[in-house]
Amino acid sequence: MEYKELTRALSDLEFLKKYTVYSSLKDSPIHFGQPPVLDYLEKHGDCTQTELAGAMGVSPASMAVSIKRMQKSGLVEKKNSNKDLRCNKISITKLGKEQLDELKKSFERIDCELFTGFSDEELNELYGYIERINKNLSDNMTDKKGFEKFVKKTISAEKEGKNV
Fold first, then answer.
1. 135 has a pLDDT exceeding 80
2. Average pLDDT for the chain
3. Interval 74-93: pLDDT, tens
4. CB atoms within 10 A of CB 62
5. What is the pTM of this model?
6. Domain range spanning residue 160?
7. Are residues 22 and 54 in the same domain?
């Protein structure tokens, strides 16, 4: 088998998984890129828009658009801070928690579906192969800081629904 065929198969797998996740969101008020925000709010409690933007690696302006959209869907709410009335805190609503829980169950189903028919031994073997591939690429990487920037930019763009 040629390397190109394996590379294409890995690329196809990545797109298929992304599409499956995207499809799982179609009947949900949660849009692509919002689950990490809701998850962060659930774990950290009330946050400012600036805190959220920093945690998500996006601009405050981009986070404002996302928050407004989630407010309209009833997933989050803005409250005045008790300490500083000029500052708003964002919190996840009951509906946001319920929808996030449903989404987590959906992601779990997708992961189970992805590895259906594999034995534990095969999964461990696959994991080992993937780790070796990652090591091969990272060992030969000359610009690790550039890679970190690229990852942050890519994650940020995905959260905003853009392609890099």
1. yes
2. 87
3. 999 998 777 766 778 999 99
4. 17
5. 0.72
6. 118-164
7. yes
